[in-house]
Amino acid sequence: MQITLDKFTKRFGDVTVVEDMDLTVGKGEMVALLGESGCGKSTTLFAVCGIYRVDGGRILFGDRDVTRLSSQERNVGVVFQSFALYPHMTVAQNIGFPLRVQKKPQAEIDAKVREIAALVRIENLLDRRPGQLSGGQQQRVALARALIRRPAILLLDEPLANLDAKLRLDMRAEIRRLQQETGTTAILVTHDQVEAMSMCDRVAIMDRGKIVQFAPPRAMYDKPANTFVAGFLGSPPISFLDGRAENGRFVAEASGVDLPLPSHLASLESGRPIGIGIRSEFLDPSSTATVSGKISFIEAQGREDLYYLQLPDGKVVRGIQDAAHSAQLGDAVSWGVNTEAMLVFDADGNTL
Amino acid sequence: MEDGKRTWHIATILGIASVPLIIMYLFLVIDTVTDTTAGSPIPDRFTFEHWRFLWQRIDGRQSIWLVTMNTFIFAASTTVLVLAISSTAAYALSRLNMPFRRFFLAGILVLHGFPTITLIIAIFLILNMIGLYNTLIGVILVKAALELPLGIWIMKGFYDSVPWEIEMAGIQDGASRFMVWRVLVLPQVAPGILALGVFSFLAGWSEYILPQVLAPNANVQVLSVYLAGLIADDLNPDFNLFKSVGLFYMVPVVIFYLFFQKHLMNIYGGGTKG
């Protein structure tokens, strides 16, 4: 079912947490709300499921206005960060609780519980209690409980934050599989850009209660709207340099950087203050446009190494090189930059 | 244990310090089944005479069984009232966004610290006015009311430790607020309910001043009042009878403690670890 937020506003006392937010999530689509803590992403989620009252604007499920409906009337499945399993009930009772609320006959509940347990692959755990389960298993129980009513909408609040790294990888794929198999419209709230990009059809980056950019992950990574988005996406993070445009080139004297601008920006008027963003993979030995500096730090990452290239004024450009690369700590090097891929921003930080 | 030696010394010192207490308890038990010649500290005759109150009425006194029944009704009713009101009021104070919440919380603490005895005259007047003086119901209501501040405060502590998400999850699963409380939250605070129940029952069982003042009538007498009546009777002093009734009065308390001491600890822990 399509979810529409129309000028959604939420205040806590005098503090406006989310203001005039517009967002449309298509039927069967999975969208991430990505942002740092306090940006209003969880607030938005809790407003969609009805836990928070809306202070302005509307929330629509399909054509139905649910703004004033209680949580119980909305048929939304929610997975909480802490999983929020009922500790005194068995796994089967936990999963079956939404149907028990609807006073379904026990035989039907049992059948549905077994069916959904098979879907999330925990059939053998039904008699255990949540305290006897690992984090990943608890996560699956929480998912099963959220999905058993076949909700039109599934909301996930930092569902992977409480899992360890290896498990996180598995559950990312698992949650996506379940969402696609059930065809549920889903909203994922996360502060982890990798999670948002790897699991969702589209990502909405939020900052101080507003959506900064809403686009598919790839498009957002390649064409970020501004420095905030560019800085949020990508690991290792992008490196920014400030300077000015000069005859189709980017010049930053203090940093000793002089690079040609991407061809579509070659006509930028001279003297205009601009900034550039260099992602670590933009370092390209075959390019003749180079940045020079000293290697100040090397992070071994296995397949490749991450180098910190310190420019004369202390600014750092991070670059990925093959592990075979032989540069040592303290070496003075000149490295080529793929200037066509380089991101260019105006003085306000918006992408040119 | 590595440091068994060190604790052994401490145990000895404490043991010696406890001797007078132990002797007192020992004599409490021995005196109930023996007689002692006047002037001698050692009992010399065995008798069940002092337990006669179990099968016959002591002159001018109510039957012990009626009094025991009264005490039980008094303690049990108080417990039920305290549990019912504490478990709901504490939930409201812990969770619901109600007006004057802070005022109520502060008020509860003040009431808890209020010495009962200062209220006794006002309570007496009120009970007299509404016709509940000299009734069990009246004294039950008063005792429950005075126990409530502590009960609510303790239960609030237990509710506060139940994660919010559990309730939000329940509401998302479609359950009403009441069902969430009854089916999902109440089981989490069961240790608190149990502990508070035992605590209230024992408090009711041992209450003396309220029944003495507010329900002195023989028909609604409780054990503590009965006991006090025995020792206050200067014409027929019978210390061994007094000790026997005292022991009889004490036995349920001891049994209760033996069974529930683990749960009582929970009150002071205040957690949901059951």
Structural class of the helix and strand makeup of chain B? mainly alpha
Q: How much beta of chain B, percentage-wise?
A: under 5%
- What's the mean pLDDT score of chain B? 88
Tell me the helix content of chain B. Answer: 55-70%
Helix content of chain A: 10-25%
Distance between the termini of chain B: 28 Å
**What is the CATH H-level superfamily of the largest domain in chain B?**
MetI-like
DSSP summary, beta strand count of chain B: 2
Describe this structure in words.
The complex is a heterodimer of chains A (352) and B (274). Chain A is α+β, with helices and mostly antiparallel strands. Chain A has 2 domains: 3-229, Rossmann fold (3-Layer(aba) Sandwich); 239-345, OB fold (Dihydrolipoamide Acetyltransferase, E2P). Chain A has 8 helices and 19 strands. Chain A has a 6-stranded mixed β-sheet with strand order 6-7-8-3-9-10, sandwiched between helices. In chain A, a hairpin with a 5-residue loop joins strand 16 (304-310) and strand 17 (316-322). The longest helix of chain A has 18 residues, at 165-182. In chain A, 39% of the residues are buried. Chain B has a two-stranded antiparallel ribbon with strand order 1-2. The chains are: A alpha+beta (352), B mainly alpha (274). Chain A binds chain B through residues 49-51, 71-72, 75-78, 80-88, 97-98, 101-102, 145-146, 149, and chain B through 163, 165-166, 168-176, 179, 184, 187-188.
Topology overview:
The complex is a heterodimer of chains A (352) and B (274).
Chain A: E1 3-12, E2 15-25, E3 30-34, H1 41-49, E4 56-61, E5 64-65, E6 76-79, H2 91-101, H3 106-119, H4 135-147, E7 153-157, H5 165-182, E8 185-190, H6 193-199, E9 202-207, E10 210-215, H7 217-222, H8 227-232, E11 239-246, E12 249-252, E13 257-260, E14 273-278, E15 290-300, E16 304-310, E17 316-322, E18 332-336, E19 343-345
Parallel strand pairs in A: 3-8, 3-9, 6-7, 7-8
Antiparallel strand pairs in A: 1-2, 1-4, 4-5, 9-10, 11-12, 11-14, 12-13, 14-19, 15-16, 15-18, 16-17
Helix pairs in contact in A: 2-3, 2-4, 3-4
Chain B: H1 4-31, E1 34-35, E2 45-46, H2 64-95, H3 101-113, H4 120-130, H5 136-160, H6 164-172, H7 177-185, H8 190-206, H9 209-214, H10 223-232, H11 239-269
Helix pairs in contact in B: 2-5, 2-8, 3-5, 5-8, 6-7, 8-11, 10-11
